[in-house]
Design brief:
By secondary structure, the protein is of the alpha/beta class. It contains 12 helices and 23 strands. The longest helix is centred in the C-terminal third of the chain and has 20 residues.
Length: 397
């Protein structure tokens, strides 16, 4: 049994086998599916786990309450990695009452054919378990329409659903003060930027609802239970949802025969010589785009370059720009460059992406390289790197 505080127990599981979260995002360190059990006069389960892990999940529950029944199941979020065990929980605990908001129950019936024994809650409603009182706060579009969070006001514990979560399985310890959290910080940024990042305004609205609430523990559905680092994780979410960034440049490029890559190296060196220390470079065909998106959320400036391919834009760059456009990222600078062998298209296509979808502030003159870099295009690449560096330096606080 893993008690977090005052009869609140961790009953979640780890997934170290899945390669891609949601079939999209790499999981080099696995992921946890966190669920919590409050052992009071009324027993309350907070969220479930992915259905593949139901039997170890059930064993964790029974380790806490033995043969006692579960009175309530709170469903903060209906994504199947958290709701997938609802139908099986009902088979083992047929009298369980399921707590959710109006949008929860339609999804629950649609996903699992489960209905009945429902308690619908609205924003601000409360339920007493005995010594624990639960307060429900609706947080729509963080990052699904039915999402909500649950406050245990008796213990200052927030059951936050996917909010404040991160990739990475839990290696023994559960609460942040028991573990080395170094590996989780960038994984929180990658989790937020790729999954929640589009919904900055709803996240800000949720943070405002929780602004004056005393929190001793944040129990998210992925990653550690936050206790020692609560102020840090809340600040990270606040900054990311306002699209605040650090000074730095993400340079990502596609290349077939090395010419575009060489241009990227020249640009990076020039920006470094002009005084920018935070520069990260990615080959879009080699690095999974989730890591590039993560760093675009971290750094203010983005420089992209690619060759023309089949009289269009190099495929992997086209995909990356589409993914970035889908995140609705704000407050960024963009420069671009391209190359071609016999038909010029890449530079124009990148500009079109920015004009129509990205809407980043354009910096410097785009560079277009015919066949290979010559003295003129070398100098243009150097100037592009300097232009972005100077733009960043002039906006320093």
């Amino acid at each position: 049994m893993i008690e977090i505080t005052n009869k609140i127990f961790y009953v979640g599981v780890n997934d170290r086998n899945k390669n891609l979260f949601e079939g999209l995002w790499p999981l080099p360190n696995g992921v946890s599916y966190n669920s919590y059990l409050i052992d009071d006069e009324k027993v309350c389960l907070i969220d479930t786990v992915e259905v593949d892990f139901f039997m170890p999940f059930l064993k964790n529950i029974q380790e806490v309450i033995g043969d006692r029944a579960i009175d309530y199941l709170v469903v903060n979020h209906m994504e199947p990695d958290h709701s997938g065990s609802i139908a099986l929980i009902k088979k083992y605990y047929p009298n369980i009452q399921i707590i959710g908001n109006k949008k929860t129950f339609g999804m629950m019936n649609g996903f699992y054919g489960v209905e009945g024994n429902e308690i619908e809650v609205k924003n601000g409603d409360t339920i007493s378990l005995g010594s624990h009182t639960l307060n429900f706060v609706l947080t729509p579009m963080v990052h699904w329409p039915e999402t909500m969070v649950t406050l245990d006001t008796s213990c200052n514990v927030l059951f936050s659903g996917d909010a404040f979560g991160c990739f990475g399985a839990l290696n023994g310890g559960i609460i942040d003060n028991e573990i080395n959290c170094d590996t989780f910080w960038l994984e929180m940024v990658r989790y937020y930027s790729n999954i929640v990042g589009k919904y900055g305004t709803p996240v800000q609205n949720a943070l405002k609802k929780l602004a004056n609430v005393k929190l001793d523990y944040i129990c998210a559905t992925h990653g550690p239970v936050w206790h020692e680092h609560i102020s840090k994780v809340v600040d990270m979410y606040d900054r990311m949802s306002r699209y605040e960034t650090e000074e730095g440049i993400v340079i990502c490029y596609g290349t077939m025969y090395g010419n575009t890559e060489r241009a990227a190296e020249i640009i990076a060196r020039s920006a470094s010589q002009a005084g920018i220390k935070n520069i990260v470079m990615y080959n879009v065909s080699k690095t999974h785009h989730s890591y590039i998106i993560r760093d675009v959320f971290r750094y203010k400036a983005l420089i992209v370059g690619a060759p023309t391919y089949n009289t269009g834009l190099y495929h992997e760059m086209d995909v990356l720009l589409s993914e970035l456009a889908g995140k609705d990222i704000k407050n960024h600078y963009l420069s671009w460059f391209g190359s071609f062998g016999w038909a010029s298209k890449a530079v124009a296509e990148i500009k079109k992406w920015n004009d129509e979808r990205l809407h980043f502030e354009a910096v410097g003159e785009p560079v277009e390289i015919r066949q290979s870099i010559n003295a003129d295009s070398f100098a243009q690449c150097e100037q592009l790197g300097r232009s972005m560096a100077e733009k960043l330096i002039t906006t320093r606080l």
